[in-house]
Amino acid sequence: MLTLLLPFLLLLAAISAATPWSLRPGFYSETCPGAESAVREVVKKAMIREPRNAASVMRLQFHDCFVNGCDGSLLLDDTPNMVGEKLSLSNINSLRSFEVIDEAKEALEKMCPQTVSCADIVIMAARDAVALSGGPYWKVKLGRKDSLTASQEDSDNIMPSPRANASFLINLFQRFNLSKKDLVALSGSHSIGKARCFSLVHRLYNQSGSGQPDPAIEPGFRQKLTKLCPRDGDQNVTGDLDATPTWFDNQYFKDLVLGRGFLNSDQTLHTSAATREWVLKFSEDEDGFFDAFVEGMLKLGDLQSGRPGEIRRNCRVVNDPSVNPVVCF
Ligand code: HEM
């Protein structure tokens, strides 16, 4: 009987391994009812410590979800067997506030051990960071598992450069079923936070290899930027991504209309006719921006790889260290 059933059981196991977890709001209402408020408290405290933590935490959702789905792979530290996403081009010396996720995980492990995934903590924390910065609040879908591995190469192959132009970004986002409207609304996340001169200098001194600045930068703003980021200056100096960098609002779009976008990937959304209508709309309609942003974040949060997963006890390490042994110095 078992021999007859074996192929069927194997097939079933393969399908369930490849089936994404079904996500839903209130996933932890029975198993860890205090989870969402515990995460919110941690994010609130982190923002009091340093307001920029809101932006840095929210950014983690984008960088986690684009690379093999929202699976907490971004949070894994490197091991002798695995070079993870933290070292990738877009993340190294740039992603920050991992300790906020660690703090939330520690609180949740005390409340309900091995119940709430790190991947879900990222999603909750991103939502809370936006809401606590004056942006919209939305119900997040939960029930993700944490990945067993991470890949620097996958991140390098997927995450866009700040030099990207609108048509590149439109195509990239389309691969994730995200429309032009989603692209523009999600880029509105740059309503909060900062970027390094490293991400900007090409625009100021050698746009597209021309040896000239990007003509789309408004001259007064360009003067300000060249002062902040002189040629051969410190590339780690940071500038604000919009004129109200701790407040989640539609100022980012107003800035783009005036030629005051910080990154090339921001300003290109206004320069390009393919996305300009959405920039103009959101610059005049903050509620419309908020609705589109929530829609985009939910779609981003739905991305799943279908790979096997677990609930990690520590967001930086997989549970079975023999899979990816941790480096000990
Ligand atoms: C459309 C393509 C995008 C590109 C090319 C891009 C690129 C960048 C770059 C280069 C930085 C500054 C990094 C640095 O200089 O260290 C940055 C910061 C940031 N990004 Fe994006 N980004 C994009 C979309 C998104 C999306 C979809 C989100 C969130 C949903 C997001 C959230 C953020 C936030 C909040 C910051 C500020 C982080 C902080 O202050 O620590 N970005 N992004």
TrEMBL record:
Disulfide cross-links: 32-112, 65-70, 118-315, 197-229
Q: What class of enzyme is it?
A: oxidoreductase
Q: What does this chain do? A: Removal of H(2)O(2), oxidation of toxic reductants, biosynthesis and degradation of lignin, suberization, auxin catabolism, response to environmental stresses such as wounding, pathogen attack and oxidative stress. These functions might be dependent on each isozyme/isoform in each plant tissue.
Q: Which domain of life is it from?
A: Eukaryota
Q: Does the keyword Transmembrane helix apply?
A: no
Catalytic activity, reaction form? 2 a phenolic donor + H2O2 = 2 a phenolic radical donor + 2 H2O
| Family, as annotated | Belongs to the peroxidase family. Ascorbate peroxidase subfamily.
Residues of the active site: 63 (proton acceptor)
Q: For this UniProt entry, which residues form the secretion signal?
A: 1-18
Residue span(s) of domain Plant heme peroxidase family profile: 22-319
Q: Where in the cell is it found?
A: Secreted
Q: Which GO terms describe its biological process?
A: hydrogen peroxide catabolic process; response to oxidative stress
Q: What is this protein called?
A: Peroxidase
Which residues does the annotation say bind Ca(2+) 1?
64, 67, 69, 71, 73, 85
Q: Which PANTHER family match?
A: PEROXIDASE 17, PEROXIDASE 72-RELATED
Q: Which residues bind heme b?
A: 190
The cofactor required is: Ca(2+); heme b
Q: Which residues of this UniProt protein bind substrate? A: 160
| Chain residues that bind Ca(2+) 2 | 242, 244, 249
